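TICKET #2291
ISSUE: user wants both folds in one file
ATTACHMENT 1:
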Amino acid sequence: MTASSEASARKLTPKGLATRERIIKAAADLIYEHGVQNTNNEQIRAATGVSGSQLTRHFPTKESLVRAVLAWQADTIVARHQVPALGGLDSFAALRRWADSYIASQDMVRGGCTFGSLAAEVVKATPSHRDAVADGFERWQELFRNGLSAMRERGELRPEADPVALAHLLTAAFQGGALLDQAVDDVTPLRDALHGALAYIESFAVQG
C-alpha cells in the first residue's frame, strides 16, 4: 500500500475501512475480468452494494481507484510470497515450491497475473500510474533479491551470482509465461519458463 493510501485508510472508521476494502476487492475482480476501460462505477456499485456517494467519497476519480487496486494487488502478491511454506525464498527448494504453486494454479490460464495484467494495461495508457506499477514490481523483486542474497552469503550460490539480475529473470519468466498461458489456454509455457529460470539459478550452485 502506498503512503497516500495508508494515510487515507488511517482516517477511516472501522466501518469505513471495511467499505473501502470491499470496493477495492470488487474493482480488482471486475478489472481482472473485463479490463480498466470496461469497468465502470455502476458495475462496482452493483457488486458491492454501495451508493454512488459512498463510492465517490472513497474514490473521487477512476484514477484514484485504479491506483488503490494496483496497491492492493501488489500487497496480495507480496503476501502470497511470504507464506510459511516458502520461508524467505532463500533456498533452491523454496524457489521450486514457489514456482510449483503457480504452475498448479488455474488462475494463470484463466487470466494471468493479477498485478501484471493490470500493470501492462495502465502503464502505457495512463503514464501517471507508472510509479505505482514500478513500486509493486520493486516490492516483489525485493523478496527474490533478499532470498538470493542470503543464499550467496551462506555460500550456496557462487559469488558471481547477481541477485538483482536473477530476480529480474524470475519475474520476467513469470510474467512472460503467464501471458503465454492465457494465449494458448495451457500452463505449459509458465512451467517451462519458470523451470528454465530456476535451472539457470541452480547453475550457480556451489558444489559440495
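ATTACHMENT 2:
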Amino acid sequence: MPRIALATYDPGTEPSKDPDLVGLVAQLRAAGADAEARFWDDPDADWAAYDLVLIRSTWDYTWRTAEFLAWVDRADALTLLLNPADVVHWNVDKRYLGELADAGVPTVPTRYLPPGAEPDLPTGHEYVIKPASGAGARYAARYTPEERELAVRQLAHMHAEGLTAMVQPYMRSVDQRGERALHFFGGRLLHASRKGAVLASGTPFDAAKTAHPSLAKWQPTAAELDVAERALASVPGGAERLHYGRVDLIDGEDGEPCVLELELVEPHLFLDLHPESRPRVAQLIIEAAKGS
C-alpha cells in the first residue's frame, strides 16, 4: 500500500479552492493507496514517510516563491516529488516562454521588464501586463495605449515588490474562441477544456478575477495537440521527465494556436468537469509511487 501525499495550500478559515482534492484522495484510497492531502508548509509533515508527494494545489506559492522553492528542494531530496524540483524551478518563472520560442514552439510574443527597467509599453495595440511569477491572473491587467498612465502605475507597484513584469499583446481571438487547456498525465493527453476570456477591459490589476470563466469540455484540434506536445518536448530534460502538465493555448494573429502558459507546477486538473479522468489519474499516481 503506497503512501501518497497530495500537497496543497492552507486555506485558513475559508473553504479550499481546490474542488478536486477530496475526490482524488478518495479515489486513491479506493484504488488501494494510503493517501492524504497535506499543506506544503506544514511544519509537522514528515515528507520522507511518503513514497510519493504530488504537488497539487499549492496555490499560495506565488506570494512566497522563495519559501516554496526551498520546500520543493527539501521534499525532492526526501522522497519522489512530482513534478521534479528542477522542473518546478524552471516553470515558476515564465521567462521559460522565451526558451520555448527559441526552440521553435509558437508562443504569445512576450517582453520582460525587471525592476529598474524603463516602462517600454506598446503604443499601437491593446496589451497585457502580468508578473513573470504568478498564478490565477494575480496582478494581471489589460490596457489600451491610452491607458499608459495606469499601466505605468502597475509596473511601479510590481517592481516595488521585486516582481519582473511580462508585457504581451492582447490576442483578441480569446474573446471569440477563448483559451484551451490541454491536460497531460503519465505522458498522454488526459482531457481538454475551454474557458472564456479572463481579463475584462478596465478591471484593475489588483482586483480579484475568475481564473476559469465559462469552463467547458473541449476536443483539441490536431494543430493544438501538436503545439502542446512540442511545448512539453522542449522542457529541459524532455517530456519523459514530466508526470503531468497543462498547456494553455490561444490563437495568435495568424489564427493558429500558440502557447500562453505551460503549467508544470500545480495546474488545476478540472476533474470536477472531467470526472471520467479521476480513476486514470489515481492509477497513474499509484503506479509512479510503486515504481519509486
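RESOLUTION: both attachments delivered.
EXTRA DETAIL ON ATTACHMENT 2: The chain has a mean pLDDT of 94.
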